[in-house]
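Q: What residues go here?
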């Protein structure tokens, strides 16, 4: 099994739709640390699991934007962001989204 991991930082803003009172319901921003892991039994014809550029292109869709506008009808929690990223990258098996130091959401297939 081949495994690759790419770690990136993106800056963006979001607001959450919550069924309770929270300051997170107001527009605010983060510098998210996003780590993407992809796995594959065999390499492609270029000798790769997936090109790191594909991962970068997908994650960069969330950089310097209002996340609410990018991920559609999903509430832009770190958990939903992790799944949204994973669903768009071939052979992705795990995405972690660190919203603030010590607060990490992980989605694994």
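A:
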């Amino acid at each position: 099994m081949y495994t690759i991991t790419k770690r990136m930082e993106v800056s963006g803003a979001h607001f959450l739709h919550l069924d309770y009172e929270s300051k997170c319901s107001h527009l605010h921003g983060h510098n998210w640390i996003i780590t993407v892991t992809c796995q594959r039994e065999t390499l492609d014809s270029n000798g790769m699991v997936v090109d790191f550029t594909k991962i970068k292109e997908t994650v960069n869709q969330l950089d310097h934007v209002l996340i609410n506008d990018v991920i559609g009808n999903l509430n832009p929690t770190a958990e939903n962001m992790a799944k949204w990223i994973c669903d768009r990258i071939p052979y992705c098996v795990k995405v972690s989204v660190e919203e603030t130091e010590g607060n990490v959401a992980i989605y694994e297939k």
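A: Context that may help when evaluating the design: The chain has a mean pLDDT of 97. The longest helix spans residues 78-86.
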